UniProtKB/TrEMBL annotation:
Residues 1-63 form the HMA domain. Keywords: Metal-binding. InterPro entries: Heavy-metal-associated_CS, HMA_dom, HMA_dom_sf. The keyword Metal-binding applies. The keyword Metal-binding applies. GO terms for molecular function: metal ion binding. This is HMA domain-containing protein. The lineage of its organism: Bacteria, Pseudomonadati, Pseudomonadota, Alphaproteobacteria, Caulobacterales. It holds the Pfam family HMA. PROSITE patterns: HMA_1, HMA_2.
Length: 65
């Protein structure tokens, strides 16, 4: 399980964009988003770096803990 802090996630549309970016890296990933906490949990075989890169490219950079 990979936990990501994504400050720009603010609504359902943001969640859809984040999901699309994650699924482009790992189509089998399972994603849980907590919009108020601006946090996403991803169950995946992909690396955190590959997810971070895809999210940054989609306009949702990951903030380090």
């Amino acid at each position: 399980m990979i936990s990501l802090n994504i400050p720009k996630i603010r609504c359902g549309g943001c969640v859809a964009s984040v999901e699309k970016a994650v699924l482009s890296v790992d189509p089998a990933a399972r994603i849980t988003a907590d919009v108020p906490a601006r946090r996403v949990e991803v169950e995946t075989t992909a690396t955190a770096q590959s997810l971070s890169d895809a999210l940054a490219a989609a306009g949702y950079p990951v903030q380090e803990n």
